Structures
1.
Amino acid sequence: MKNSACFFATLLGALVLFISPSSTAGNPVLNEKGHEHKAVLVELFTSEGCSSCPPADEVLTRLQREQPVPNVHIITLSEGVTYWDYLGWKDPLASETYTRRQSGYASALRRPNLYTPQMVVDGKTEFVGSNFEQAKNAIRAAAIADKAKLQATAKWQVGKINVSAELHFRDGKPVEGYSLFAAVVEDNVVTSVARGENSGRRLAHHSVARELLKLGQSSSVASGLKLERQIEAKSGWSKQNLRIVLFAQNEISKSILGCTECAIVSN
C-alpha cells in the first residue's frame, strides 16, 4: 500500500441544467413481489500495479453479477488510481480524476492516507475491498437509508452519448449542496500486465469507469433537478460493453443521495 497526497479538482463540461420539482419513478429494479429494490453504489479504488487488488476486483465483479443482497440493487464502479505507476506499470485504466476522488473520501471519512484496494459503499463506509462479507454487510446497512429517485436514459448519436437524467427527493423537501455525476462504465476489460507487482498476469475488470463527469450541481435549494448532457465517445471503448452509472452526492459528507444505471440504446 502507498500513501499519497492529492488535491481536489473541478470537473468541467457543457451542460443544460434547470431545477425542477420533478416526480419521476426512477429506473426501478423490482423484486419477485413487485417491490422496488433499493439502489446502493459500491466504488472500488484499485490499480493494476498493486498485487493486492485483483482479489478486490473479483469481489466487485461478484457484487455486480450475483447481486447477493436481497431487495438491493448493487451498482458498482471500478476507479483506477495513479499512485502505483511508479513501480514500472502505468495502469491504462487509471486516472488522476479517480485519485483525486479517493483523496476526497479520505478527507470526508477521516482516513490518514490513501490505499488500495479500498471499497467505499454509498460514500459512507470504507474498508479493504477484497472482503466480500464486509461488503455485503455494508451494503445491507446502506440500503436502510431513504434515497432520492433518479431516472436516466442514454442514447447513441453519431459518436456521442446523449444522457438525460431527472432527480426527485422522495419527501419533496428542498435539498442543497449536492452534485450529479455520470460515469461511462465498461465491462469485460482485460489487460496483460507487463511490469510491476502483477507482471505476467492477465487481469480482468468489470464496471471500469472510463470517464466520470460532473453533470451539474444544485445552485439553489430545490427538491429535484433535470438535465441533459452529451458525452463524447472515445476510441478504445467497447460499445457493446458500455453502460451509464449516475449518482447524486453530497458535496461535503460525500454520502450518496441516489443512484441508478442504464443501458445505452441506439436510435
2.
Amino acid sequence: MGVRLFERSSRRVTITEAGTLLLAQARELLAGSEAFMATARRIRDGETGLLRAALSPDIAGETVAALLTEFQRRHLGLELVLLELTTAQQLARLASHDLDVGIVHHPCDVSGLELGPVLRRELGVLLPRTVAAAELDEVPLSALAGHDLILFPRADAPALYDDLLTACARNGFTPAAVRHGQGASFVHGLLLSADAVAFGPRDTRPEQVHGQRPDSGVVWRPLAGAPLAWRHSVAWPKGRGDAAVKAFTEAATHALRTTADATSDVPSRPLYLRPASEYWL
C-alpha cells in the first residue's frame, strides 16, 4: 500500500501512525468482505436471489394466488419470476437452463429432472346444460358418444394428449372430432355452439371461472368411475434442488391441495413415456 503499517523489532510489534489512521477503514473492508461472502453463500444455497418458475395454463387463478402467498411466507428473501408455460415449453426451458423449476403434467419426459410429490386432480366433464348427459349425477364416458371434444393443442403435452384419448377410447368415447382450445371464454363458446364437451377438474366449474355465471348454459359433472385425471408435480433439473426450489415445491403442493382438490398419487406405472400411444386422432 506504500506506507508502513507496523514497527517491528525482535521484542515487539507496534502499529504506526499510518496504520492507526487506516485501521477503521480496514475493519470496514473486512466486515464488508464477510457480508459479501455470506451473501454469495445464500445465493449458492438458494436462500436469496432470483427463482424462475413456471405453471401450466390450466392452473386456476385461486391456486396461483395461494402459491404466491405461501411461497412469500416461506421465502421472503427471494424474488420469484412466475411464467405461464405449457409442459412442452417448460421441459425445453428446464433442459436449456432458462427455467429453474416448474409444474408439469404427467406423463412427460422426465429424464434429467427431479420431481416433487405427484398429485392427482380428477377430471369431470363440462357440457351444455341442454344435452341428455347433463341430467346425470355422474357421466359415463360412453354417454358422450357423438360429441366433439375440446382439448388443449397436442404440442402442449403430447403424451398427456394421447393418454386422454386412449382412456376415452377404452371407456367407450371416441370423439366425433377434436377441437383445440384453452381459454375459458373460448372453450365456453365452443361448448354452447359446437355440440362439444370438454374435460376439466372441479375448479373449472362455471361458477368458479371468472366471468361465468352458474346459469351460463354450461354444467360440470363428475365422470363415473373417475377414469381421467391430471397428474402434476414440481420438476427441476437434477442437482438444482436448493432451498428456493424446496420452498417453491412445498408452496405449490400446498396450494394444489388446498385450492384445487389435489390428492397424493402413487403412479400405477412409471412416469417415463411409453414406447407408443394406443390411440391417435
3.
Amino acid sequence: MFRSFRAALGRFCARRAAAAQRDAPRRALAWLRLGCKFAPSFADTYPALVHLSRALDDRWGAVEAAREATVRFPDHADAWMLLGEALQMVFRQDEALGAFEQALALEERADAAMAAGTLYHRTAQFPEAAARFARAYAAGGGATALWHNAQALYDAGDHGAADEALNLWATQVPDGHSRLPEARAELRAKAAARAQVQ
C-alpha cells in the first residue's frame, strides 16, 4: 500500500512538472526532483528530470540526476543508458562507456551495444568496437549495426570478416547487392584514411 501511495505521489509531481514546464521550467525541475524522491520506479520521473535539465542547459544537473537513478535502481539498464547519455553531454567519454557497458551487462540490447561500439570506435579500439556492433546486430540492431561492424572490422584490418558483414548487410537494405561494390570501396577508403591519420 505504501508503494502505491509513493507511486501516486510521483505521478502527481510528474503532472505538476508537465503543467509548469512551458511557463516555469525551474519550478518543473523542482517538481521532478521531488517526484524522484517519492517515485518507487525509475520510469516515473528520472528520465523527465534528466531531459529537462539538459533542455535548460544544466548538463551537470542531468548527470547528477542520472547518477542518482543508477544508485537507486542499479539493476535497471535504462538508468545506466540515461547516465551514459548524460555523461556524453559533458564529454566524459570513458565514464559514459562504463555506463553503457553496465547496461549491456544487465541486458542484451542494441542501443547499449551501439553506444559502446561507437565510443570504442572513436578511441581507435577497433576490435572492441566490432565486437559491440556484432552484439548490437544480434540484439536486433539490423543493417545499421552491420554497417558499423563492417567499418570497425576494416579499421581493425580484418578485411575478410568485414566483407562477410557487408555481404550480410547487402541482404537487408534495398538494392544491397548492386550497392555492395560501392559500399565496400567507401568503407575501405575510410579505413585507409583513418590509418594515415594515426
4.
Amino acid sequence: MDENKIYELINSNLMFHLATMDGDQPRVRGMMLFRADKDGIVFHTASTKDLFKQIQKNPKAELCFNADGTQIRVTGELQVNTDPALREEIFAHPTRKFLQAWKDMGIDNLMTVLVMKNCEAVIWTMETNFEPKKPIKICNG
C-alpha cells in the first residue's frame, strides 16, 4: 500500500485509538483526528488532561486507525504545534463545533494541537494476518 492510500484510509474515519505510556502502564483511548497528510497526523487534546501529561513525559505513541477492514497502526513521536493559523482552522472546522464553547468561555488556550511526524505505518488485514510486518514511512513532510 502506498503513502497516499494510507492517508486516504486514515482520513476516511475520524475516530482512532491512541496509546501512550503512563510510567510503565500503557494507556489507550479513543481520539478524533483532524487530518493526516505528508506533513503529519494532526489532532488535539486539552492541556489539562492526563494524556497531555503522559506525552510531555514520553512523546512516543502509537495510533490505530480502522477503515474498510484495514487496520493501520502508526508509530512515531508527538510534537506540540503552536501555529495560530492551524489552531484557528481547527476551531473553524465543521467537525469541531463543540470547541466553540471553549472560545465562548475564554478557555480556548487549553486546546493543545498535537502532530505526529516521521512516522511508520503497519497495515493489517485478515488476508495478511500471518505475513511479516512491513513498516511504511509516512508523514515525512
